[in-house]
Design brief:
This is glutamate formimidoyltransferase. Its EC number is 2.1.2.5. One of its GO terms (molecular function) is glutamate formimidoyltransferase activity. The chain is globular. Helices cover about 35% and strands about 25% of the residues. Strands 1, 2, 3, 4, 5, 6 and 7 form a 7-stranded mixed beta sheet that branches. It has 9 helices and 11 strands. It has 2 domains: about 5-180, Formiminotransferase-cyclodeaminase, Chain B, domain 1 (2-Layer Sandwich); about 185-300, Formiminotransferase, C-terminal subdomain (Alpha-Beta Plaits). The longest helix has 19 residues, at about 105-120.
Amino acid sequence: MSKGKIVQCVPNYSEGRDLDKIEKIVSPFRGKEGVKLLNYEADKDYNRVVVTVIGEPEAVKNAVVESIGVAAEVIDMTKHEGQHSRMGATDVVPFIPIRNMSMTEAIELAKETGKAVAEKYNIPVFLYEKAASKPERENLADVRKGQFEGMPEKLKNPEWQPDFGKAQIHPTAGVTAVGARMPLIAYNISLDTPNIQIANNIAKNIRFSNGGFRYCKAGGVEIPDKGITQVTMNLTDYTKTAMYRVFETVRMEAKRYGVNVIGSEVVGLVPMEALVDTAAYYLGLEGFSMDKVLETSLME
């Protein structure tokens, strides 16, 4: 990878079960100059795959647009079922500035991508987070409210005209949100109960919109195959809302219902600094920082 500008993109697609379809969706990120596929992680319960790529802005943009086209061909949202909220075959596409790149440039890249997707595939696009055209579109949950099934009616509302494309959903690929943001952690905490109400109650207590942690968005999800539920969340600024702090709060709240935390998982990639912070807390390390991580010194 060159010393120039580097952007990260983490597109989320509404397919987590059919491996052939997933490979087709991911294929545009392979063997491309200026693009590196870091990770892709599918979840059968959520019926969703999260892809993480980095690279040169123009190359990443072109690969993302190509992949969105593939997803529109292989995913039929009229038949999609899963535990995760969704409104399109390619549900959400965030760009994250990583090196020698400003947020302003990431926002411009998001706009270019949204315009291309609408023009090439007739998929309406909303801009969200830092790229949002209106304050009420910053929060992805507000944009996605109604999900795929409710989008035809939602797009009739003058307040919810798409930023790019016609106010009419793609019949099988739905609607896509494209935005720009800082790095976040997609984090799920598992509970040993099938009672979704308990997970929802805990999520309500920890998310910012209900008075919880400032940089936490959370909801409850059922995992019927395992007989458990999860508190699923996005930590939008891990330097101010730490993973360990959220984990311990969920464990404390679960005790109110006689429920135990039985594990947690990170979806996609996580910044090393977030894990160092968590390790320092649980091990009681004094004065510990990234400077004391062996791999960090090797990269200098």
